Amino acid sequence: MRIVKKADFDVPEWRITGFSNVHNHELLKSNEVNLLPAYCTISADDKNRICMFAKAGMSVRQMLRLMELEKGVKLGCLPFTEIDIRNLLQSFRNVDRDNDAIDLIAMCKKIKDEDPDFRYDFKIDAHNRLEHIAWSNASSIHLYETFGDAVIFDTTHRLDAYDMLLGIWIGIDNHGVNCFFGCVLLRDENVQSFSWVLKTFLGFVKGKAPQTILTDQNMWLKEAITNEMSSSKHAFCIWHIIAKFSDWFSVLLGSQYDNWKAEFHRLYNLVMVEDFEVGWKEMVNTYGLHGNKHIASLYALRTSWALPFLRRYFFTGMRNTFQSESINAFIQRFLSAQSQLDHFVEWRLLLIIEIKQEQNKRCNKSSTKSVSKLDH
User: Which of 32, 123, 165, 167 would give a disulfide with 186, using CB separation of 3.0 to 4.6 Å?
Assistant: First the structure.
């Protein structure tokens, strides 16, 4: 359709001067019409259910499949798509962050009033905005008293809706089960913020520093640990290092990449420091890695990740691949739903209770097996 504006005798007038009934694209099939924006609608009831599913930690695909089953429609025939749900969830997250932070602090205070053993602390910046907040509960602190000699402080994830770094303190109990010790949200990553985290956590656990602490290769965190936990042996999680190898070396080494990675694992697992030093030089020569900045950095920090330098320290098996996968799955449970900050903390506290119940079941099963063996 072609429309033009005329102004005869200074009187404006719109006129249709042409019309074509020929489409310049293929018409959609009947089962594809619902993909048009005009047809993609989410009812108020469905919005409420999606919000509830998100709080329960369900993925978007799980939500879609469940709602298809509930409504009795074929796969992909809901009046909205995966993208529509993601956009809706993002709109839930675009809340007033200042008010949200106030709600979070108020919720922590309420929990503290109901449970005197609940611990939390926070810091407000010069503009009266939430800068950092950390919390732990009585059961987590009790677990730390028993199993806190070796810990992981994971700071590799963020709450995207709030652009805050998430730090989680994790350990392993005598059954090899992951333990939650505490959590923190940070606005900034620097030595000062990490120092605040470490001092706050030590305050929660009555000043008991771990014997060993594993982190990623954050140099600000490394400096803060040196300052605040000088008696603890700080080491780097090897799986965080290995996860970067593909980006660092796959293109550079090409067809030699797999062989190089196998050689790296061999060096990593050596017993003697002298063998590591000799083997590292040979590896650099063999693969022509002189001057590579990543190789130089790894070598400079070798006492913080290579087993020949760490075997005399206690890590409760947290450095092996199986345990690292278990720890990563544990962390993902904390990240599976991101909503308002107070809901985030509340949901994590519920998750801790659920994890504790799972641990008790494992302990009971272990005890039952032991009794059965003694009876026979």
Answer: 165
